[in-house]
């Protein structure tokens, strides 16, 4: 757990650098930012953001189940779900978010905003793209934790700790996205 927290500290610095790049380039070309940011579909991105934020809630529900050593549900009732069911739902919500980002990229590319089109395109794709890679890594981590829950004979403290560590990462990714959303989509 401590190692993950230290590593997340380095990730904070990485994303702080991306924010610094964004604000530096934006200050040098405010008219470009005004023009290009007008192409963003803010309502769609808000819905996509709400999907990602809700995945943090489902992730935490999975952690609560893991802390009770409840790996899987004994019935189909969501009130009885274990970590596996909550993490599968979190995975689905995260995958929907990534698919939404891909759709947004395709839309922007069709409108001429590409990685090499100008500084706006470069910084937009770098910041959101690196975040998307982090979300994808989190999705892989969820699959590994779910697989581990199926692989062990007895779900215990070690498996619960893995779930908690993955939740730290997932919550971090969500908080970073909230920051990116406000900076890229809301801040004018």
From TrEMBL:
Transmembrane segments: 5-25, 45-66, 86-103, 123-147, 168-187
Localization, UniProt: Cell membrane
Catalysed reaction, written as an equation: 4 Fe(II)-[cytochrome c] + O2 + 8 H(+)(in) = 4 Fe(III)-[cytochrome c] + 2 H2O + 4 H(+)(out)
InterPro entries: Cyt_c/ubiquinol_Oxase_su3, Cyt_c_oxidase-like_su3, Cyt_c_oxidase_su3-like_sf, Cyt_c_oxidase_su3_a-hlx
One MF term in the entry's GO annotations: cytochrome-c oxidase activity
Record-level GO BP terms: aerobic electron transport chain
Gene Ontology CC entries for this record: plasma membrane
Domain Heme-copper oxidase subunit III family profile intervals: 1-188
Matches recorded under Pfam families: COX3
Top-level taxon of origin: Bacteria
This protein's UniProt keywords: Cell membrane, Membrane, Translocase, Transmembrane, Transmembrane helix
Main location: membrane
Keyword Transmembrane attributed: yes
Family membership noted in the UniProt record: Belongs to the cytochrome c oxidase subunit 3 family.
Protein name: cytochrome-c oxidase
């Amino acid at each position: 757990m401590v190692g993950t927290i230290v590593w997340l500290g380095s990730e904070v610095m990485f994303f702080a650098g991306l924010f610094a790049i964004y604000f530096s380039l934006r200050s040098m070309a405010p008219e470009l930012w005004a023009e290009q940011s007008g192409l963003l579909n803010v309502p769609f991105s808000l819905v996509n953001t709400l999907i990602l934020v809700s995945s943090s809630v489902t992730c935490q529900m999975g952690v609560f189940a893991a802390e009770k050593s409840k790996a899987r549900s004994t019935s189909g009732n969501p009130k009885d779900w274990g970590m596996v069911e909550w993490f599968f739902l979190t995975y689905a919500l995260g995958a929907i978010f990534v698919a939404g980002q891909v759709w947004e990229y395709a839309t922007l590319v069709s409108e001429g905003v590409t990685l090499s089109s100008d500084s706006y395109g470069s910084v937009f794709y770098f910041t959101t793209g690196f975040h998307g890679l982090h979300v994808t890594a989190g999705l892989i981590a969820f699959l590994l934790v779910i697989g581990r829950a199926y692989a062990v004979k007895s779900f215990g403290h070690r498996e619960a700790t893995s779930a908690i560590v993955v939740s730290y990462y997932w919550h971090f990714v969500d908080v970073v996205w909230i920051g990116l959303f406000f900076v890229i989509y809301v801040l004018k």
